[in-house]
Design a protein that fits this description.
This protein has eight helices and two strands. The chain is mostly helical. It has one domain: Up-down Bundle (Butyryl-CoA Dehydrogenase, subunit A, domain 3). Helix 4 runs antiparallel to helix 7 and helix 5 crosses helix 6. The structure holds zinc ion.
């Protein structure tokens, strides 16, 4: 079970927000299973490709849910270190600082601590994933026209959690023995967003060097 719902089953069991489940018996569940199996083959470039005959929206939906769950778990392992004292701002190294705005409820970006920012961010993503008009889980219910654009925003924001973990908490990740888990998850994420051009290069700048390193070895 764990191998299907969390594609990479690390040691971590604590999640930051509740895990988002894809209901068993649905086509999305089968796609999720397919993704887990192809990932097991070790060829990430191949694993992220749209499976033959499948719908792009559905494929992006399933993977977006999975990335949310992975990041949820990864961040969950370091919450004791990511405190308002240690991380008074949501940063990704000295050159990047994020202020939270969701564009609807909070329009004017607010400067807040990293744990608060991440809480806003993950709650916001959770709301998007739970919105049946945006992420329909029932068979035959079409995805909205704006679906891919919405996913782009979700993935762009989720990237910031990786960026914060890598820049501010990598030592702790290593001490927890979660380094390989983090790298595999991030590499999968990057290969996926590159395959479908889902995040603007500019947004990926805070981890540009790492991305270069992770993606240059195998194409
Ligand atoms: Zn932090």
């Amino acid at each position: 079970m764990a191998a299907i719902s969390g594609i990479f089953s690390g040691k971590a069991s604590k999640t930051f927000k509740p895990k988002k489940n894809i209901p068993e018996g649905t086509h999305q569940y089968d796609l999720m299973k397919h993704a887990a199996q192809t990932l097991g083959s070790g060829n990430l470039r191949l694993a992220v490709m749209l499976p033959e005959g499948e719908d792009l929206n559905e494929w992006v939906a399933v993977n977006t849910v999975d990335f949310f769950n992975q990041i949820n778990m990864l961040y969950g392992t370091i919450t004791e270190f990511c405190t308002a004292e240690n991380c008074p701002v949501m940063s990704a190294g000295p050159r990047y600082e994020y202020h939270w705005a969701d564009g609807t409820v909070i329009k004017k970006p607010i400067k807040c601590s990293a744990p608060r920012y991440t809480d806003y961010l993950m709650s916001w993503v959770q709301d998007q994933l739970d919105d049946e008009t945006l992420f329909p889980s029932k068979i035959g219910v079409p995805f909205p026209k704006s679906f891919l654009n919405s996913c782009k925003t979700i993935l762009k924001r989720l990237f910031r959690v990786y960026a914060h973990i890598y820049h501010q908490h990598f030592r702790e990740v290593v001490s927890l023995g979660e380094e390989a888990h983090l790298n595999t998850s991030f590499k999968h994420f990057i290969f996926f967003v590159q395959e479908f051009t889902l995040i603007d290069k500019r947004e990926l700048q805070p981890l540009a060097e790492l991305i270069e390193k992770l993606t240059s070895k195998d194409r």
